[in-house]
Amino acid sequence: MVGAHPDDEDTALLAELALRHGVRAVYLSLTRGEGGQNRIGPETGAAFGILRTGELLASRMHDGAEQLLSPCVDFGYAKRAEDAFAQWGRDEVIASVVQAIREVQPDVLISVWTGTAIDGHGHHRASGIATHEAYHLAADTNAFPEQLQAGLEPWQAKRLLVRVRDETHWAEGDLHINVGQWDPILGRSCFEVAMEGRSLHRCQNMGALRTKGTQQVTYRVAAGAPVEHLRGAHALTGLPIRLDAWAEACLGGGQPTVLEAIEAASQTLAQAWESYHPQRPETTAPMLLDALRALRRAEQMLHHAESGASPQSAPGRMALGKRLQAHVQRVEAAWLQAAGIACEVQSPQPQVVAGNGFEIEATLLMRGAETVSLLSLEPDVQPGWQIECIEGPEYPLSLTEGKMAEARFRVTAPADEAAALSATLRPWLHLPSEGHLYRFPGPIPSLAPCAPPLLTVEARLQADDVQISLATPLMYREADPGFGEIRQPVRVIPRVMVDVSPSHIIVPSNVSQTPVATVRLRSQTAERGRLVLRALGQDGQAPHVLGDYELPAMGLRTIDQELPIDLHAQGKRTFQVEWQRASTTPEASSHWSVQDVGYSHIEPGYVLVPAQLSVTVVSVDVAPDLTVGYVPGVGDAIPDALETLGIATEIIDDTMLQFGNLEAFDTIVVGVRALETRANVAANRERLWEYTRAGGTLMMQYQKPREDGPSRFIPFPDVTMPRPVPRVSQKKAPVRLLAPDDPLLTFPNRIGPEDFDDWVQERGLYFMATWPEALRPLLESADAGESPHRGGLMHARLGRGHYIYCGYALFRQLPAGVPGAYRLLANLVSFPLRG
Asked: How confident is the model at residue 90 (pLDDT cuts 50, 70, 90)?
């Protein structure tokens, strides 16, 4: 299944395929959703991608599917597929889908988007187009030869399905798949399971009801094998599902001894399924061992048959070999469950630094009634890491019910910090991105959503004459008093973490005070060294030494540092703060901090953040003695920007909004999506209207209309925001001032076209489409080829006060240090004191 973003996937169909039909189901998301809006926290960019990837993986834990990710970076909203391809590269997008097809070798390829205008978002359309083309190209030996050189094989899926969401587009022959059938094993339907998982996309407001009864999803066969009988049909109807039928179709009747072994395994697995009882799982264990014997016999015969087989049959044999290997792994996992065998590999600490060592413990527990032999507990660690066994049992060790085996190992990280840090980074974060594509060190990108385990311990077991392996990754676990057990992979962090704040400093040109940054040094080990400030983009300039320091182990040192800035020179300068260890070269310096991404519904993650800051001297004025109240929304940094401008700002919490004296504020600013995400704001919006009618100035940032339309946040009739809501997605789209002499655009700063230079991601979103005469537009802008949108910055009198609606994306520009955004914000909040 292929989509553009986290939460695009059809979780119900994934659950139906994986849990009900027992087949391997995989979702490829082209992006990690970095360019979206975050409903639950402050994460943006790479950290937001970690959060949304965590939500994808949490959802997969419910629906039983696997997850892959392409190299594409979510750069924000795009209106056309061409806009998305222009940022990512058409060939690069198609190559990633082809690679996923060749890696997974699916029987059915599913596109959740059609590739047409009805998909809306340009990313969606690009996803649909790329999936259609990849369906054919994946089997082409001339397409993307670098993948074949890396060991992948051409593959032709047997059917391409495309989702048809809107019933007005349904046609005769479409598949209406019931994903709401009650499953006695699950105790509920796959739809109910899937909606529980889908609701974990919390940062995107994807909470869903777990509705019982018939639930249908509709798909159309776009290419490949048709579905002859539609009643009760599903994605795999008419295609071989059982391994024996699949093998016969793959080999075309050849290799009869291989087929006999596979048929024997399939029949044994069917018997095991029929005889399975949840209170007596051990009764199926002998049958699972028989199935393993037959599958391994088939693997051996297939391997021996390769020498005398024709080249034409090679693709079928290789595909069958891969499918056999996957079945062996699944049957091994089933036997381990039936036998009641579990393994834990635990670290006493959640993180490690380069050159340091720590002890881990592996515990194998025999909880079932079987008797097995433990042949070994063998650790496998990433290259460059060292491991030695400290203590372990004598092998072979007989394990009966209630017994356990324990072993302890000492693990040592590489002394080279860069090599150590790379061991636990997500695959797409090893190298700087290039444009809107992640780069990877290998010949083809990694599609994996996680870093490989730092360490695994493989338990080699023997039951009768069958050997089975259980590989368990190293984890750290702790008991959180509020949420219970939390597990996470062990991570590598810098010896000294360097954090600098703020990351963007705006210095008004009329301020003579030297800007100050706060540097925090968090040392994991005792170190001596110096802190330096390096100007980026100025090669040959010696770094500025900030001081020499001795840091204790597990210490924190906070330094308020004046920055050597010429306040008379306007413009932007970027600096990097580095910790240089004594007796090491500057190349060994550290300039990273760790940004944790932790929420109760995902496995904790992190990103490394460079200790960089930009300083921009801006010609910006604000009205004197201005007081602003701020109603928090989600994912914006407006209060920080207001304080940077020297404006007295107070956060309006729920109590203040409901009972406080709002007239104490000259201007009240309502945060992004505040009325959507904070019930108390929506419930007390009339208080905001009363404040405005009494003479206050209310600045409303963009809000998303719901069922009741924009009247929730715009106190005027006849305002419309039809879907698709007007927006300007191109960050360099021209902006024209409709009323250049209006006080909102002249006091205290005269706004001009140059104030819209260097904007990031987009111009704005959720513009008004129509409005009454009382509302007056001040700006217009449009993406290339479109008519101008004027509903992005609106002003109206409301009683004795003023209402301002701002759909322009200040919430993105201000954290990025865009000068014009600060000047525009200063004007909007200064308006009531214009004199």
From this structure: very high
Give the pLDDT confidence score for residue 344 in this predicted structure: 97
**Is residue 649 helix, strand or coil?**
strand
Q: What is the DSSP letter of 20?
A: I
Ramachandran angles phi, psi of 577, nearest 5°: -95, 130
Q: First vs last Cα of the chain: how many Å apart?
A: 60
pLDDT of 512 reads 76
168/166 Cα distance (integer angstroms):
5
Distance CA 462, CA 468 (A): 6
Map tokens 């693990």 to a residue: 411
d(CA 58, CA 204): 14
How far apart are the C-alpha atoms of 373 and 532, rounded to whole Å?
59
Say if CB 449 and CB 67 are below 8 A apart. yes
Amino acid letter, residue 717: P
SS3 720: strand
CA dist., res. 26 & res. 14, Å (int):
8
The CA distance from 641 to 318, in Å, is: 59
User: What domains lie within the chain, and their CATH numbers?
Assistant: 2-239 (3.40.50.10320), 341-492 (2.60.40.10), 496-617 (2.60.40.2550), 621-833 (3.40.50.880)
Residue 29: CA atoms inside 13 Å, Cβ hemisphere, count?
26
Residue tagged 């015969």 (tokens): 301
Residues ≥6 apart with Cβ < 8 Å to 686: none
Helix/strand/coil for 797: strand
CB within 8 A of 698, min separation 6: which ones? 667, 668, 670, 688, 691, 692, 798, 801, 802, 803, 804
Q: What is the pLDDT of residue 543?
A: 86
Reduced to 3 states (helix: H, G, I; strand: E, B; else coil), residue 742 is coil
Whether 797 shows a pLDDT value over 60: the answer reads yes
The two tokens of residue 609 are 């953040």
CA distance 406 to 396: 13
- Nearest C-alpha neighbor of 673 from the set 695, 650, 705, 648: 705
**Partner residues linked to 806 by β-bridges:** 701, 793
State yes or no: cis peptide before 315, omega within 30 of 0: no
Q: How far apart are CA 713 and CA 704, in angstroms?
A: 9
Give me the sign of the Cα torsion angle 107, 110, 115, 117.
positive
Report the distance separating Cα 642 and Cα 632, nearest Å.
Answer: 13
Among candidate residues 569, 573, 588, 499, the one with its CA nearest the CA of residue 536: 573
| Other CB atoms within 10 A of residue 263 CB | 18
